[in-house]
Amino acid sequence: MRKILIAEDDFFIRDIYSKVFSLSGYQVEVAVDGLDALEKIKAQPPYDMILLDIMMPRMTGIDVLKNVRMLNTPSKSTPIFIITNLGQQNVIEEAFKLGMDGYILKSQVSPQQIVDEINNFFVTKESTPPSTPPPQS
Amino acid sequence: MFIPLLIIAILLIIFVVVIINNSYTTSIKNAEEKIIASLNEPAIVLNSKLTITSFNQAAENLTGIVAKTAIGQHIDTLLPLQGESSVVPFIVYSEDTDINNNLRHTLTFQRQNGDKKQIMVTTTKHALTSDKTLITLLDTSNEKQLEEMKVDFVSMAAHELRTPLTAIRGYASLMQMNYATKLDASAKELLTRLIVSTTNLANLIDNLLSVSRIERNNLTVEVKPLDLSVIINDIFSSFETQAKTRKQQFTLNMPEKMPLVMADPFRIGQVFINLIGNAINYTPDSGTITVTVADQKDHLQITVQDNGEGIPTEAMSRLFTKFFRVSNSLEQGSKGTGLGLYITKSIVELHHGKISAESTLGKGSIFTVTLPIATAEQQMQNKSQDNGFLTVKNGQGIIVRKKV
């Protein structure tokens, strides 16, 4: 069973994502803000996937991403998807430079489409040899 | 005896005439100054050389320049226009036109202390001496600020509405996906309507956000050389089911090989989603909708033609304006927001393209979009900028993936 960490500050959206990923057979853990996410990432064995919102109290998703990739956490090379309503190209590009694996604009995508996209990510990953260079730090 | 008397009399008459004449012009000049001075509105009088001859208290207050300094200066020295055209052509133009034909022009004026003022300048030919010009100024900074606040408020409200709406849509779609077996037919029907309504609301909010970005000149397009056939095909397929349920004949004519255009994949997608969506909505069952793409050497022309209800002639001129809806379309239910075509036009123009519409009431409409084709340099330049990621349009959302 794949273990996923979902960092989202809105109670209801967090609840929906937990439910929809649980129903699709994921083991779900949640974080209520950026700092909570980083603390869990530091303390827990590696996750198989991390989903980060950007606008969160105490620490933004971008800063969580930066820390995960730079610090020596168990999840240092875990795939990370950003799920947000911020669609600016410069934010997307910055997140890619920091080593994110995918970016989903949540306003027009249903929860099931997010699950499908993550499933799809794992299918593609398993069918291609791990040749991706390590992210720049 | 008689002749010297006559000479004296003539001299006396000349003297009196000169005096009267002089005092007459002086009194006009005084009157003019008094009138200008008594105005609550900032007012400036220029002579034929466009040099300032009168400058009232209100003008002093607005510009922060005292009359003593202002008088004798050329108007362009006094009102340095930032990146905008000079007021002079307006003055010259107003000299040639009727007195009642005032000319208005808005400019930004920077006071010496750095404060920026938005000023509406009205130039009028002087009523008494036609070689003079009267300029009145109106400080519209507050109006501008109010307008900005209004746009900011709409943007903020729309953003705040998004999160709870995402939750509502999320729960509804979760229920539909995973608990549908536990619902009876009528509950399922209600759920479907709930989802359709929340989707409409989400579109409305997205449109409001787009409009507020347009109003703030904040709507940006990230153009790159793009094969439009992929996008148009995707959008076409996404509407096929809807057209089929309404028994509409829905056709796409597209050349096999298409030149690349410089476009933002997400934004340009919105354009065709809007145009094709409108065509389907405003065409009755069993109608015909045809999308045609034609390569016209330096630009690509995309037409969306339908044989639907058409648009009344009097509505054509306002078709692309904000919040405008063709009146009879209200009977269709609350599908439209009156923002779609306004946004569509703005996006097309950001791409240096053009959009136009032709319509005959009762016979249908044709919407035509032209987009410039990418030059060889633009295509080369972009290759070096490839960031190795792929933007995928999924329904109306965006997913960005790493290129495999």
Task: Give a brief rundown of this model.
The complex is a heterodimer of chains A (137) and B (404). By secondary structure, chain A is α/β, with parallel strands linked by helices.
Task: Walk me through the structure.
The complex is a heterodimer of chains A (137) and B (404). Chain A has 137 residues and is an alpha/beta fold. Helix content of chain A is 43%, strand content 17%. Chain A has helices spanning 11-23, 34-43, 61-70, 89-97, 111-127, and strands at residues 3-7, 27-31, 49-52, 80-84, 102-105. In chain A, strand 3, helix 3 (61-70) and strand 4 form a beta-alpha-beta unit. The longest helix of chain A has 17 residues, at 111-127. The radius of gyration of chain A is 14 Å and the shape is globular. The mean pLDDT of chain A is 86. Chain B has helices at 2-38, 57-63, 67-70, 75-78, 88-96, 141-178, 185-215, 228-245, 265-281, 313-316, 340-350, 376-383; strands spanning 43-46, 52-55, 103-110, 116-125, 133-139, 224-226, 249-253, 261-263, 288-296, 299-306, 354-360, 364-372, 389-394, 397-402. Helices cover 47% and strands 22% of the residues of chain B. Chains A and B meet through helix 1, helix 4, strand 5 and helix 5 of A and helix 6, helix 7 and strand 14 of B.
Shape of chain A: globular
Q: Quick one: which chains have the greatest interface? A: A-B, 32 and 32 residues
One letter per element, helices H and strands E, the order of chain B comes to HEEHHHHEEEHHEHEEHEEHHEEHEE
The biggest sheet of chain B amounts to:
5 strands, antiparallel
User: Strand pairing plus helix content of chain A: what structural class?
Assistant: alpha/beta
Strand-residue proportion of chain A: 15-25%
Number of strands of chain B: 14
- Work out the radius of gyration of chain B: 32 Å
Derived from helix and strand composition plus strand pairing, the structural class of chain B reads alpha+beta
Strand % of chain B is 15-25%
Tell me, what's the shape of chain B?
elongated
The CA-CA distance between the termini of chain A, in Å, is: 30 Å
| Helix/strand order of chain A | EHEHEHEHEH
Q: What is the straight-line distance between the termini of chain B?
A: 121 Å
